[in-house]
Amino acid sequence: MKYLSVILFFVLVGCKSVQQINQQKVENAITKNVLQLLKDKRFHSVSIAVLKNGESTIKHFGELMIGKGNKPNDSTLYELASVTKTFTGYVAAKAVLDKKINLDDDIRIYLDEPYPNLEFKGEPITIKHLITHTSGFPNMPLKSENKKAFFGGLTLIKIETKPGEVYSYSNTAPELTAYILEKVYQKSFEQLVIEFILKPNKMNQTKFTLNENDRKRLVKGYNDKNELMPNYNRTLWGGISGLHSTAPDLVKYMKLQLDQSNPVVNESHRKLHKEGSDFWEGYHWYIIENDNLLIYRHNGGIYGMQNWFVIYPKQNIGISILTNTSFNETGEILEKVVDNLYNDLNVK
Question: In the prediction, which pLDDT does 16 show?
Fold first, then answer.
């Protein structure tokens, strides 16, 4: 019995050491890639969260205000920008499973006006087209100063391609999706996100509406000229942008997206529109699959900050990178950081 206790002690110590070694490898990989990124002086602060095999690692670098030395931390609130669309996709997927909507529904059955312009040669725009950026809608809403104006802008849209055939990124479509979801559930879109995603996953620091204390933690971002940029002012439903979150909460979101026992997650990851040999659109997820690699990803860019959120379900890995900088090449640069970090995480 004495010898068994000794053996168990060494086994437990050994397991802990392996876990510590793996954790150190993740931290080293993050540090290596972020320090390389910060050589570009247009970047000032970076927060990275990694979830690998259920173990999370979060690290923060740089300074939030130039010259202040105030490093971001686990309480720092970032704007998620277009990564908000993945939340819209989740609620839409739940609505499909709840039989509140059907992907093949003509969107006009949910609108109060007939909108004869929202079709192409008799071909209607469907919910599926809204979700996959194949509706033919313009990128930005033609009118966005308020919700009433938004519907006025819909009357001005001219659909020039057959819905479902041509991919064209649209911020107009997710806002209309959010409105439709409000209508079928008879709850505000904000409340739907809270009820279906934030509360069940204890994402208490992820929110659309900020109080005074939250605003003190909200990042003020920069452009490439080191000029402070304004935060996004949400005037519509929030289907395209408007969520704020922290690195720890995004780890919780990774855990949700890696939960393959969740039927809503599985529906939201379904391939709905094929773009290339290995590229699809799901419910506001960009899906890449080839050989042994499967990726669900989305990026978000707003006036003064950008981020990438990426899930690798086969490897049980999630990566989120957030920075307080936004300029034309930021998304491309961050994408390379994520790719390099993923490769480092998978080195045996």
Answer: 60
What does pTM read for this prediction? 0.94
Q: What angle do CA 183, 154, 286 make, to 5 degrees?
A: 75
Ranges assigned E (strand) in the chain: 45-52, 55-62, 78-79, 119-120, 123-124, 244-245, 273-276, 279-281, 286-290, 293-302, 305-312, 317-323
pLDDT of residue 7: 53
**Res 162 pLDDT > 70:** yes
Q: Which amino acid is at 300?
A: G
Distance separating alpha carbons of residues 339 and 252, to the nearest angstrom: 21
Give the pLDDT band of residue 273 (cuts 50, 70, 90): very high
- The torsion angle over the Cα atoms of residues 208, 213, 219 and 220, rounded to 10 degrees, is 100
Longest C-alpha distance within the chain, in Å?
A: 83
Q: pLDDT for 45-74, tens place per residue?
A: 999 999 999 999 999 999 999 999 999 999
Tokens of 33: 């890639």
User: Are 341 and 327 spatial neighbours (Cβ–Cβ below 8 Å)?
Assistant: no
Query: 273: which strand partners?
Result: 281
Query: CB burial class (10 A; 0-12, 13-18, 19+) of residue 291?
Result: exposed
Question: Which pLDDT value is given to residue 5?
Answer: 53
Overall size of the chain counted in residues: 348
Torsion of CA 86, 336, 330, 306, to 10 degrees: 30
Per-residue pLDDT at 79 exceeds 80: yes
Instruction: Output the DSSP codes for 90-115.
Output: HHHHHHHHTTS--TT-BGGGGSSS--
Q: Which residues of 22-44 are buried (b: 16+ CB within 10 A; e: fewer)?
A: eeeebeebbeebbeebbeeebbb
Helix, strand or coil for residue 273? strand
